[in-house]
Amino acid sequence: MQTLSRIIKLTVSGNKTLLISTYIATFISGIALLLQPYLIGLVIDQVVESLNRGESVHVNQILQSTSLIFITGLIRGIAVYCQSYLSEKLAQKLAYTMRNKFYDHVQHMDFKFHDEFHTGNLMSRAITDVEAMRMFVIGAMIRGPYFILLFSVVSIILLYNDLLLGIIAMSFMPVIGIMSSYTRLKLSSIWKIVQEQLAHLSVILQENLTGMKVVKSFNAQQHEVKKFDLESFYISKSMIRATKIQTRNSSALEFLYILSTGLVVVIGAYKIIEGDLTAGQLAQFVFYLGVLAIPVRWIGMLVNNIARTVSAGTRLFDVLDKKSEVQELKSPIILKKPQGEITFKNVTFGYTETKQAIKNISFKIEPGETVAFLGSPGSGKSTIAQLIPRFYEIKEGQIQIDGLDIKSLSLKSLRNNIGIVRQSPTLFPVSISENIAYQDIDSNQSEIEKAAKIAQIHNYIKTLPNAYQTIVNEDGSNLSGGQKQRIMIARTILHNPAILLLDDSTSSVDATTEENIINAMKKVMENRTSIIITHRLNTIKNADRLIIFHEGEIAEEGTHNKLIKSNGLYKEIYNLQMIADEKNKDIIESLQ
Questions:
Q1: Mean pLDDT of all residues in the chain?
Q2: What single-letter DSSP state applies at residue 471?
Q3: Whose CA, among 187, 238, 311, 378, lies 20 to 30 Å from 342?
Q4: β-sheet bridge partners, residue 431
Q5: 487 vs 510: CA distance, rounded Å
Q6: Degrees (nearest 5) of the Cα angle 322, 325, 326?
Q7: Strand pairing partners for 553?
Q8: 246 neighbors 187 (Cβ within 8 angstroms)
Q9: CATH 3.40.190.10 is held by the domain 2-320
């Protein structure tokens, strides 16, 4: 019930007038509905009494008697329209709030959170689960109280009009209550499974569409289809099971209603013969039983609606209640124009609790210095690039910029002073110009083109039909790896950060492209603190100093000449790459 309470509070917050207006329209439609059986009974008795007295019934008399029925019908129609419109508006406001709240929350979470939750899973929660909450507002939140009140009022009217017939009509209510409670419990567990299955299906779909080129390259379409088909089958099976339980409950309620109506008609007819009841009163009673059937028939759907909402809301709040480990101080220091000094003091960090990625790391990088981090994959060098901008929170040690603990700095100002060029460049499906100015949207075209020239991508962009207004395909598929990387470099140049992190930025390109990127980066690294993270020696020729990582620790540190003379790990890496380069050169020469 705590989940439902939170959803109701979110719906009411800032929407009290709209909620009250919706309830007013709903209850006006209910009053009009309750008046109609009463008026119909009066008309029937009026006609029957006239006929019993041998009087003729004129059309005008009938029209006059039935005019109130038409008026109440018109009022009910208008009220139902208002109720439908207002309840949908209220539900859409909640959906809008929840989607934005969810999106904003995800944007501000640390990388550990994103490691834990798959993209497809988050998409499912933001879309499917929010939609379930929207349906709850329209269904259980608005109609629930209305149906409870309608049921209560009609029950009182039935018992007041005729105690015996009222007791007969109400005798099935305890059975209905027990069945509905049982159904809700059964559906709650099923809908929890369904929501998880839908999330898993979203993950499969997202992974497949993202990796479609790989799927086709390995001719794995059939395998992917089978995987998707199997998950779809499980969802269909669960949905059918839920529908079966709901339908069984609804059918049983319908049967009980028909049974009670039949008994009321039989006993009511006998009472008319005995003179204890008029035809109009029996008609009223049967019509009120019809009104009573409305909430009874809706019980099954409301129970299903509530069960699904509890499951969806629980999943959604599971994400919203997550707290980022990276927390900003209440009054953080604004890092304006740092010199770029970076200090690590005994830093230990692990992506999980059981395994450490780096252990007791200490080093200092002077302002404007270019330092290269080398090491095999998994040695811990790339972890450094994740820790300096505080994408993850360290458990031990301290990281400083210009002598200030990065935990004391505002996250925005910290990250605003750091430019990162990653191994896998991320471009968005907007124009090349917008991609370059992604972090500096107020930049003018001349500034964008100047950055592109330094990154050595301007000439290529100008050959495109729409030049800088060319739209980048999803995942940048209309650009080569080197072109995407140089656009990323142009983005960094335009932003002009004090600290530059190059995280294996040339590992996925060929030798010629690598040379172009290295040349482009020379100008970028001038007069700014730069860290080059790589396992290829070609990219470190401009470095002032080298730090060699091995199994999460610093193995060696110094200049190229110093490390070559020390006959340590760096010399071993250097010799292996020289041998590999010679082999590649021999292969190329033999092919020529």
A1: 81
A2: B
A3: 378
A4: 471
A5: 17
A6: 125
A7: 550
A8: yes
A9: no
Q: Is the pLDDT of residue 589 over 60?
A: no
Q: At what angle do helices 163-170 and 221-274 cross, to 10 degrees?
A: 160
Closest to 469 measured CA to CA, from 436, 424, 425: 436
Give me the percent of the chain exceeding a pLDDT of 90: 8
Specify the amino acid at residue 106.
Answer: V
For residue 401, the surrounding DSSP H or E stretch is strand 396-401
Longest dimension (CA), the chain: 127
> What is the H or E stretch that residue 20 is in?
helix 16-52
Assess contact for 516 and 485: CB atoms under 8 A: no
pLDDT of 510-542, one tens digit each?
A: 666 666 667 767 777 778 898 888 766 766 766
Identify the residue with better confidence: 586 or 107: 107
**Secondary-structure class of domain 342-417+499-591 per CATH:** alpha beta
Work out the angle at residue 278's Cα, subtended by the Cα atoms of residues 277 and 282, and round it to the nearest 5 degrees.
80
Q: How far apart are CA 572 and CA 71, in angstroms?
A: 95
DSSP category for residue 370: E
**Would you say 33 and 344 are in contact if contact means Cβ atoms under 8 Å apart?**
no
Q: Please name the residue that has the structure tokens 């033999």.
A: 590
How many CA atoms lie less than 13 Å away from 164 in the CB half-sphere? 11
- CB-based burial, 5-43: b 16+ in 10 Å, e otherwise: ebbbebbeeebeebbebbbebbbbbbebbbbbbbbbbbb
Check: CB of residue 200 under 8 Å from CB of residue 237.
no
* Closest listed residue to residue 92, CA positions, set 140, 133, 146, 40: 133
Helix (H) or strand (E) holding 188: helix 173-210
Which range, 186-190, 297-301, 424-428, 487-491, is most confident? 487-491
Whole-angstrom distance, CA of residue 350 vs CA of residue 12: 43
Q: What is the pLDDT of residue 17?
A: 92
Amino acid identity at 27: F
- In the chain, where does the domain assigned CATH 3.40.50.300 lie? 342-417+499-591
Identify how many contiguous H helices and E strands the chain contains and give both numbers: 21, 10
* Lowest-pLDDT choice from 240-244, 342-346, 431-435, 443-447: 240-244
* pLDDT reported for residue 344: 92
Give the residue range(s) of CATH 1.20.1560.10 domains in the chain.
2-320
Bridge partners, residue 401, by sequence: 342, 404
The band of 591, judged by pLDDT with boundaries at 50, 70 and 90, is very low
Q: Are 93 and 86 in contact (CB under 8 A)?
A: no
